[in-house]
Specification:
The protein has 13 helices and no strands. With about 300 residues, the protein is mainly alpha-helical. It has one domain (about 70-280).
Length: about 300
């Protein structure tokens, strides 16, 4: 599969998401029963994975060839868990900055999530969602884009697409950042399994925290939420600097961890040379990807206004 087909697949994902939104709106307009968060999550993931699988199969390529899911070393597994915890301050900082402009989307959904059994939410948000999203974004899209030789561009583009797929500015910000960090993990291990483990660990921690505390963005985000105040007061510049310093320190630690993982997996030389990878002249961005991003931004603006 080539990058042009990957971009068309992403456009189909966004159009399918729009279709789902319209269908749900019509369902409620005719007095349909409430769709619980479990079904909503399932539908949302289905409209992401089906276009990706269809695009790969239509290209004649095997999914098992395009998406590397081979096992990683045990030491890499444990370092991946540590890597996840190192990402929390970075995510908390980006989330805090976004809340200067928009509401915290996860907090708004928390009431619906808490109505469901915790084990079901772990299965849905902590396992199913991460597997599908990593399969699509760090698997199908990232691996396809990398065939152009533009490794950095592939990481950035697939991460932006991942953030935009959440269809709101709050999750777009830290979603894109997490996308980059998960992509680096895939580059370090050569396996999408590693990013799935990280993503599943991150989301599962969030779900458990949601059910066991009043915080919805983990231990690091508790600091950020506290600074925002009960009534959304603006935090002081000094507090922003404090969060920024934490994000930089732990972000640097995360880079050291992922480089160590690359060394363990025998990919350190490749990982360190990513910025210097040979380009083949492809631009990655095509009309379908531009249309998809415009549609995403348009909906995010509408979502923020309403």
């Amino acid at each position: 599969m080539d990058y042009k087909r990957a971009n068309r697949a992403y456009l189909y994902m966004i159009l399918s998401t729009y279709g789902l939104i319209v269908a749900v709106t019509l369902w409620y307009s005719i007095g349909g029963r409430e769709i619980n968060v479990l079904l909503n999550n399932a539908f949302s993931e289905i409209v992401v994975i089906l276009p990706a699988i269809a695009a790969v199969l239509y290209s004649g390529e095997k999914l098992s060839v395009l998406v590397p899911l081979h096992k990683i070393k045990l030491s890499s597994f444990f370092l991946t868990i540590v890597y996840v915890f190192a990402l929390f301050p970075l995510v908390a900082f980006v989330n805090t900055i976004s809340m200067f402009f928009v509401e915290n989307t996860v907090n708004e959904l928390s009431g619906d999530i808490l109505k469901m059994p915790m084990w079901l939410m772990i299965l849905s948000i902590g396992i199913m969602g991460p597997f599908i999203e990593e399969f699509v974004f760090r698997g199908v899209l990232l691996q396809t884009y990398q065939r152009t030789g533009r490794i950095v561009g592939s990481i950035v583009l697939s991460s932006i697409m991942f953030g935009m797929m959440h269809m709101n500015f709050n999750q777009f910000g830290y979603g894109a950042v997490m996308g980059v960090m998960f992509a680096l993990l895939v580059e370090a291990t050569g396996s999408v399994l590693s990013s799935f483990i990280a993503h599943a660990c991150f989301n599962t921690i969030e779900v458990v925290m949601m059910f066991t505390t009043d915080d919805f963005l983990g231990s690091a985000s508790e600091i950020a939420e506290g600074y925002m105040g009960e009534f959304g007061d603006i935090i002081t510049p000094l507090e922003v600097v404090y969060l920024f310093v934490l994000a930089v320190i732990f972000g640097f630690l995360a880079i050291l961890i992922v480089r160590k993982i690359a060394q363990i997996e025998g990919r350190k030389e490749f990982f360190d040379n990513i910025p210097h990878c040979r380009k083949q002249g492809y631009k990655l961005i095509t009309v379908p990807s531009i249309v998809a991003m415009v549609l995403c931004v348009a909906y995010m603006i509408l979502f923020a206004i309403l």
